Amino acid sequence: MPELQSEASELSPDQWADAGDGVRGAEPQTYVTFELAGQIFAVEVGTVREILDLQPISCLPNAPADLLGMIDVRGQGIAVIDLLSHLGLGHPLSREEGRIVVFELDADSRKPVGVIADRVLSVVAIADAEIEPAPVTMVRWNAAAMTGVARVDGQLIMMLALDRLFKSDAAGPFDFD
């Protein structure tokens, strides 16, 4: 069973940059884990572009509630999403601390998106066999962005596919193609 780091130190880019993104199969895949409102989420390490210190976010007029605004990273504007709100899990109480995890969801479009995390925990290797499917319930619940649930050191980890979570066939207010 993989081991989850629980110490307060956060990952530096050097610790996760070389972890690889692998191909699904018998070999364990590597995931970046992060904490948000007491829950642990994991995403494939290959989708993570960088991890930034929390910085001021410029608000956007008429933006949806889960779009916090934009940040400037080396001359590139990056949208920052409130993942809790986007997942329907409420809103954070405060944002004085944390990290911004920047993801590249589509290698072709190179459109990064940032998500605020309370803490970035570790890079873990999890085999497909250790991932249970997303729960099936009788209630209406769209679990399309959740690829499954893993247990690491007795903790549940929600496995996310952010490309599915943020995928939209409709043009957004900032899509000018």
UniProtKB/TrEMBL annotation:
GO biological process entries: chemotaxis; signal transduction
Spans annotated as Disordered: 1-22
Superkingdom of origin: Bacteria
GO CC terms, sorted: cytosol
Span of domain CheW-like: 28-171
PANTHER family tied to this protein: CHEMOTAXIS PROTEIN CHEW, CHEMOTAXIS SENSOR HISTIDINE KINASE-RELATED
Protein name, as recorded: Chemotaxis protein CheW
Organism from which the protein derives: Paracoccus onubensis
